[in-house]
Specification:
Length: about 400
């Protein structure tokens, strides 16, 4: 265990002209060739993921699985992802970033083709499980690579750019999938989801391979037992639960005859989250990410509470703006804060723990909300979700009160 490191390192503040020259060079280097190729491959992976994320639950309901079956599809996808993320740092250490990312693309894309040939819940769940394995490898390798390829003093901005790369597919593909099934049906959407992931294999050879031998990976369980990493992860997980609810059930909860309200709501949420994630990165580089966590949680909680008025289009759109803003800031600030608290050898662990919080939250939100709403109806279930998000203020406050003297794996 090593002491946490806060702030930028290696600055040139003693010589202003040299500092300005170094800053200009750093700005030129933030997008290098491996990072650009990573962004291209990530767009393919995330487009595939988000294109089908809301479509598969709707497909499940169309074959008679009902609301519980819809929730199970998201739950199976995300719990499979969580299981794979526990092993991801060790697998990356053994096989390298490149192989991990390539395997992820294949597992994420190819199984979607099976949905064109079968329409029963068992097959749907198996496909979701396999795709979850692929998704885990791509997101864990992706986040770790960004931390490794971007200068430390601009890590927040780098993660913000990565957030845009991740967010654009969610902003476009998430509502696009819901819209496309109304226009062309399910099979073409499933085929598109498969092909766009597999196309990313074309640029994978340009990604870095193995991690340096001197950097031994830190286990995920060790990271989860480390308060410096666990507290931000728990806070972020609460907002991710709400995101799972939004993605899976807003298309089902909006009133019939509301036009394209579901697609608009998902688009608004994804767009706001993407912009907020980028803004939080730049802000965090200047002032530190820790101060952004609590405002993000409060904003996300207020946004979720607006969905209690699910029959009101104005309330739905307003809620999605607020929730998207809070969720986007929470994404960037929590990840940047966790990376600040480890040495380079812990980047894979941070990426796995953070993605574990994200994906476990999505899975719990999708699975549990379906069961709860069957008993309470949508308004009460949305109110309970908002209360859960707002309760995350407690661990967020404890993390800030702990100060900078905490330990993290390195």
């Amino acid at each position: 265990m090593t002491r946490m490191r806060f702030g930028a390192s290696g600055g040139a503040s003693g010589d202003p002209p040299a500092a300005r020259k170094a800053a200009r060079a750093t700005r030129q280097r933030i997008i290098n060739r491996p990072l650009a190729l990573l962004f291209v491959a990530t767009v393919g992976a995330l487009t595939s993921f988000y294109l089908l994320l809301s479509v598969v639950p709707l497909f499940a309901t169309s074959v008679g699985a009902g609301g519980i079956g819809a929730g199970l599809t998201t739950g199976a996808l995300m719990f499979s992802t969580v299981g794979a993320e526990l092993a991801a740092p060790r697998l990356m250490a053994r096989f390298g970033y490149r192989m991990a990312f390539a395997a992820g693309l294949v597992l994420l894309g190819a199984p979607a083709l099976a949905l064109t040939a079968s329409a029963n819940l068992a097959t749907i769940l198996v496909v979701c499980i396999v795709r979850g394995l692929g998704f885990a490898m791509t997101v864990v390798a992706g986040s770790a690579l960004v931390a490794a390829l971007v200068p430390h003093e601009r890590r927040g901005e780098g993660l913000g750019l990565y957030g845009i790369v991740v967010g654009v597919p969610s902003m476009v593909a998430l509502p696009l999938g819901v819209w496309l099934i109304e226009q062309i049906g399910y099979p073409p959407v499933f085929i598109a989801g498969a092909l766009v992931a597999l196309a990313g294999l074309a640029v994978v050879p340009g990604l870095p391979g193995r991690q340096p031998r001197a950097q031994q990976p830190v286990g995920v369980l060790t990271g989860l037992r480390t308060p410096a990493l666990a507290r931000p992860a728990v806070v972020f997980a609460a907002t991710a639960v709400a995101a799972g609810v939004v993605i899976t059930f807003v298309p089902l909860a909006v009133a019939r005859g509301s036009g394209n309200l579901a697609a608009v709501a998902l688009l608004v949420q994804a767009t706001t989250a993407t912009l907020a994630r980028w803004w939080a990165g730049r802000r965090g580089d200047r002032n530190g990410p820790a101060g952004l966590i609590m405002p993000a949680v409060l904003t996300a909680g207020v946004g979720m509470s607006a969905l209690v008025l699910i029959a009101s289009p104005t309330a739905v759109v307003t809620g999605m703006v607020l929730f998207g803003a809070g969720f986007g800031v929470a994404q960037n600030a929590s990840l940047a804060l966790m990376f600040d608290r480890v040495q380079a050898s812990g980047y894979g662990t941070v990426s796995a723990v953070w993605n574990l919080a994200y994906d476990a939250g999505l899975g719990v939100g999708g699975a549990a909300f379906g069961v709860i709403t069957a008993q309470t109806g949508y308004p009460i279930a949305f109110a309970l979700t908002a209360a859960l998000v707002l309760a995350a203020v407690v661990p967020a406050w404890r993390d800030r009160s702990a100060g900078h003297a905490v330990s993290a794996p390195g």
